[in-house]
Amino acid sequence: MFFASDNAGPAHPKVMEALIAANEGYAMGYGADPIMDAVRTQIQGLFEAPDAAVYLIINGTAANSVLLGTMAQPWQTIFCADVAHIHEDECNAPEFYSGAKLTLVPTTDGKMAADDLHQKIAAEQNRGVHGPQRGPLSITQVTEKGTLYSLDELAALSRIAQDFGMQTHLDGARFANALVALDCTPAEMTWKAGIDAVSFGGTKNGALGVEACVIFDPALAWEFELRRKRGGHLLSKHRFLSAQMQAYLTDGLWLDMARAANARCMQLAEGLRGHNAAEMLYEPQANMIFFQMPRSEHKRMRDGGAVYYVMDGDPEVGDPDEPLTGRLVTDWSMTAEGVSQFLDLLRG
Amino acid sequence: MFFASDNAGPAHPKVMEALIAANEGYAMGYGADPIMDAVRTQIQGLFEAPDAAVYLIINGTAANSVLLGTMAQPWQTIFCADVAHIHEDECNAPEFYSGAKLTLVPTTDGKMAADDLHQKIAAEQNRGVHGPQRGPLSITQVTEKGTLYSLDELAALSRIAQDFGMQTHLDGARFANALVALDCTPAEMTWKAGIDAVSFGGTKNGALGVEACVIFDPALAWEFELRRKRGGHLLSKHRFLSAQMQAYLTDGLWLDMARAANARCMQLAEGLRGHNAAEMLYEPQANMIFFQMPRSEHKRMRDGGAVYYVMDGDPEVGDPDEPLTGRLVTDWSMTAEGVSQFLDLLRG
Amino acid sequence: MFFASDNAGPAHPKVMEALIAANEGYAMGYGADPIMDAVRTQIQGLFEAPDAAVYLIINGTAANSVLLGTMAQPWQTIFCADVAHIHEDECNAPEFYSGAKLTLVPTTDGKMAADDLHQKIAAEQNRGVHGPQRGPLSITQVTEKGTLYSLDELAALSRIAQDFGMQTHLDGARFANALVALDCTPAEMTWKAGIDAVSFGGTKNGALGVEACVIFDPALAWEFELRRKRGGHLLSKHRFLSAQMQAYLTDGLWLDMARAANARCMQLAEGLRGHNAAEMLYEPQANMIFFQMPRSEHKRMRDGGAVYYVMDGDPEVGDPDEPLTGRLVTDWSMTAEGVSQFLDLLRG
Amino acid sequence: MFFASDNAGPAHPKVMEALIAANEGYAMGYGADPIMDAVRTQIQGLFEAPDAAVYLIINGTAANSVLLGTMAQPWQTIFCADVAHIHEDECNAPEFYSGAKLTLVPTTDGKMAADDLHQKIAAEQNRGVHGPQRGPLSITQVTEKGTLYSLDELAALSRIAQDFGMQTHLDGARFANALVALDCTPAEMTWKAGIDAVSFGGTKNGALGVEACVIFDPALAWEFELRRKRGGHLLSKHRFLSAQMQAYLTDGLWLDMARAANARCMQLAEGLRGHNAAEMLYEPQANMIFFQMPRSEHKRMRDGGAVYYVMDGDPEVGDPDEPLTGRLVTDWSMTAEGVSQFLDLLRG
């Protein structure tokens, strides 16, 4: 009953086996390993983008930050959701790598509305040299609230950016969870929807620690490489990144894992819907649920062995009737039985 | 016959086993995993420094840069060898993280002389607010030329820094190789010799990718944590760093591996000494040899299957008699037979 | 009828005379001129802060940015009004100098409410190392909307900051206008109200270009000096800054100029109140008015020779009845006749 | 007898008069003043570069740093003399604005030799993504030792840069002194000699504080403007910069002042040559002399009222016979009588 985070679960055994296999003998470092050549081709094929630049990096903060550093200028502002990971959870890393600032677009269920985005972008750069200039748009899919943009919604947002001459970045830390939920192709969820560069996550979906940075305009490739190195993010024993990503992508493992995680989430959601004391805050669409419940109920769950974050208060201290928000995240490794056990506990 | 780099070899099987073992079940991320608690204690014990702050990070460039960012101010200059890795091989990462500049101290065999260091430090900060101010000293041990500072030499350098009110950082990417060669304790090679913070390398000595940052003044700990996060270097599935380091340190594995690497290097050196055409440029003291040989000889070795870097020219193109510099690096995984095979080939 | 900005008017003749006088003979540069010694004492006396560090700098963006760079850390966030100059009009300069980000506190009439500030501060730093940490608070007095914080309101805001262990910066680009409007002492409007450092403006109030940075904790002095130099903001012929500030402060010239500017503003406000077509958006308290009027009226004023900014549309193009916002700023050099002329034109 | 620095002397009366004249009435700020339009045309004409972008900035550190920030990338290294002002005297400002590092080229008399420059450039960027990449070259004319590059020497250096695909910046803090000494045109000393951008100094040659940044490739103009603003270097009352520069350039005032300064320097040099105890270290070619003399002689001069910097020791304390280096700088305001007085004192 561990629903704290999708980065708290184990890596998939096939990923581990690939690591072991990659550990044989000698291999040139820094991305010149032969597995990386295969991975690049694999990802270009997957995205139907034979010219895309493809790089591996150790985590999502680094993927986002090096990409945004490559896409933004230090006198610009990056547009993103007010609950975006790049704003709330990366301790100024995107600003560190880019020099730019962030302009926050309001959200209700974790999603930016096209009108709000348009208004925020239009409001910038009316002060000539005095104010920050318009930089890239960054969209998070799956959002931080567990919701999804439809393909049309993605395209609408990126079209606004494009109309202002801006590029669009996709923070896809949970790319696979979104993809299987939308039942679309990687190309459809990215460049066909106007996305220029993607943080393609693996870590939260069964890898040890690896994300791909996919840049559809190869003209940015060399700058990305220099920024990655300058950030200390070019790994010497790079084959261990390559091997993870190769196993991740082989035989649809990544999609299977995302489907499993999402299925467990839907099972949880159904159970929560049937429970009087709990109220879901957003309609879960991938592998994450936010729900409200009285403090006493959270405490009861915790005492019963359920592990998850309570976001806005201490389950142990305070008015037992006060509603508090819990977050449940599922990953590939959870079983239907584990979820049932949680729901049984919830039902009391 | 692969002597290109000590980061081209495999990780030790025990390190891989530890990864597999660490992959069981759920674990809190970002350094809150239980293995990290054990590792911290292990390293504090090893360094006889129960209050030291200990952090893990994915590679040497990151270890050096986040540490120097914590130790230096953006209006300062960091003193280092003119051949230091932080100057030549990190694409401005130390400057990126610290904002400081580097002042290069001349070297002959990769080592700074105390007099030269003193002169360089004394020459700075005579211009009041106009010039850069004196920042930390960074010493590389093993040096980039495969040589070693004795404990007395280390202490002499750090004492100069201390006399100017400066701190001293040790770039220990090859810490273990130095330690077994000097046959001393970690404490003797660090804080007892005046070192304030250490990049304690694992990657070049049999890990997949992990370095410890050891800071003897715990007052710097929180700033280090924030700078690590802001650089995108705090890993979510941190247990995979912890597990590597734990295996690395258990039962003296790290020392055994370093001894093996150094032994192979001594075997190589002895062979080279007996070879007329080759001349060693520095007295090898750890696991790295620089030697000169005519181009034709390098070509012959390459054709025979030996892999190593020729630093100052193409072995294939040019005057066959021109002497070129080769670099041989050994790691834990090499066998005495492999080295013999190389030497046999050399002898023709 | 020039109401575009208080930095568009001339410098006071006494300031110009002081420049001429300071131009005699030789003087050591970089702040070592004898006039600076006098200015420092003058300002320390004025602020009843004999230990305050006092520096001169060429403009308000530089004053704010170097001060905030000294007060904030690159992993922090600076709290400020959503309409603050440091956010809207300095092209990321505060972020450039500090590395920090900005957290915007909502405003109605240009002022932050204590509750909103508290909520914004409380909401940060709940994510441990993952989110930005709490940095300084920056308050603008006179606000960007021409309104004022009372001394109690200032104290309430800075007390909130203090309770969270944060320092408070005052952007006093229009310090004098605020001071004479509140009829208080510099000490009362700063350190007695909990302010730790002040951008004390001269440029908008009759100087050529000079601001004082006043830091009540002298421990920050040397870092400020280094950051000023590193930003290229230490002037060699510094006596021309010192001379301006000396003349500005002598015999209450600065207060006289601010009183004159404010008086013209009140005259304008009275006239606007009596005009049906115009509606003031905020109660003007210093030297700046924001008012709404139909486009056709703005156009009529412009055609009649009145110069001021229309903030949200082109007075020439669009629906003649659409209300647009005009901004009127007065400075020391305006005459009552000039204002009457404007009001006569307005009345038609 | 004040020879401490050319920024210690007064501004020329015509510059002051221009300031007074520019102070009439209202003028739009931030470079939109009408005088700036005239100055831009004036400088474009002077440099025979009708498309050049021209900006004014308050001092030389800012001019160099904003220009180099515009020309260099943060993963590059800027090549400059080991005694360059951008290295020794700007407290990391060029690094702050550019993110790049500096590679120091050895000098003897303040000048880089073409061979040394070539070797330093060739040695960089051989490490692929690992080392810093080649950024711009920065040449100082007049050098920090008072010597000059001939036009051929300038062209030879910039051609080397060009062959490596690099741009060249000229630090012309003493541009006028060099120009009249070489008796050439601004175009000949800049773009005709391969220079891409110039810090065109006024401050050291009779202005209060103004430098022009002249960029021959207008494609860089907008980025320069944004970087200037982001550094806090766009002045609101910009007309006071424009007015200075206009007066400076009108009727050849700037050339007359430089000729006067250089003439006084030659007078000094002649006197020093005839003095046994003093030895000039470099052949003075503009307005600066470095000379050695026993400590006792420096002390005698100081006691007699001569003011200048002794670079390498305290004239008051130490062996009276030890030779110490003095620096003498002349400016436009010095009289032949003043110099004679100094030389008389020297002769004893």
TrEMBL record, chains A, B, C, D:
Every Aromatic amino acid beta-eliminating lyase/threonine aldolase domain range: 3-291
Keywords carried by this UniProt record: Pyridoxal phosphate
InterPro entries given in the database record: ArAA_b-elim_lyase/Thr_aldolase, PyrdxlP-dep_Trfase, PyrdxlP-dep_Trfase_major, PyrdxlP-dep_Trfase_small
Cofactor(s) this protein cannot do without: pyridoxal 5'-phosphate
Record carries keyword Transmembrane: no
Quaternary context: Homotetramer.
Family, as annotated: Belongs to the threonine aldolase family.
Name used for this protein in its record: Low specificity L-threonine aldolase
